[in-house]
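pinned: reference chain
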Amino acid sequence: MLNKFEKIKQAYILYNNLVYLDPLQIMALVYRLLFKQLYNMYKRQGALALSGYLVKSFGYLTIDRYLRGSFSQKGEDLIIDRYFKNKRKGFYIDIGAYHPQINSNTKLFYDRGWNGINIEPNPARIELFQRFRKRDKNLNVGIGSSKGMATFYELDANGLSTFSKKEADSMLKLGHKLKNKMKIQMYKMQDIMKEYVRSDIDFITIDTEALDLEVLKSNNWEKYRPKLLCIETIDFADLLTSTKDSSDRKREISKYLSEKGYKEYFSNGLNTLYIDSKQKSVITN
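pinned: its structure tokens
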């Protein structure tokens, strides 16, 4: 009999295995597990029953997100788009970019005509950005507290790969596998800003698997101030391997950003959006 922790652990592993599959793997999985069953339901009960089943199984908000053209994990790009009032041109920075299309907070904007900087330490992943994000500056580096070489831990779920040994070890305990370790060049965020930023920054999205606060602290906030920040503030490993009922990560990030003049705008449990309180709001009701 599985205890509560083991059930949560198995559900977590299943979730990440699904979220971080490549497109061809997803297509094969969907065909094997769902297509035949859904087709049989359609034949037996009709289109209305099938539609009701899909809404009940996946949730209205999830289906609505894809119908409205979101590429983010939980519709963060739609919230960002609302904040900027469907702005036609703009500039973004994606730190821990992962993929140019899957779970991307910037693809919606790139397709509209925006451009920016994508920072991804995995060499295989950066090749995808070179192919699909030709207007962007795509950098195969990491962002941290100092310049130099650092060990990057590539996990079987690529979206969970990290520079943090502690985070990597936690993921291994949760059932993930270590695929590779490699040395990657690290820079401070302010170094990237100085070298490549030549315009106002509309938003920065950060997902660096446990190192988000370190990334934030590497910026010069007096000189480089994005209007909005999107940061992964959930700590899966901490919540699943400790007795605490909540994570310290969001509290630490929110406290730091508050000191820099940013306030929380939106949170969906996975990511939190912060806006610069020193700039004029562009929110519409």
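why pinned: The radius of gyration is 20 Å. The chain has twelve helices and ten strands.
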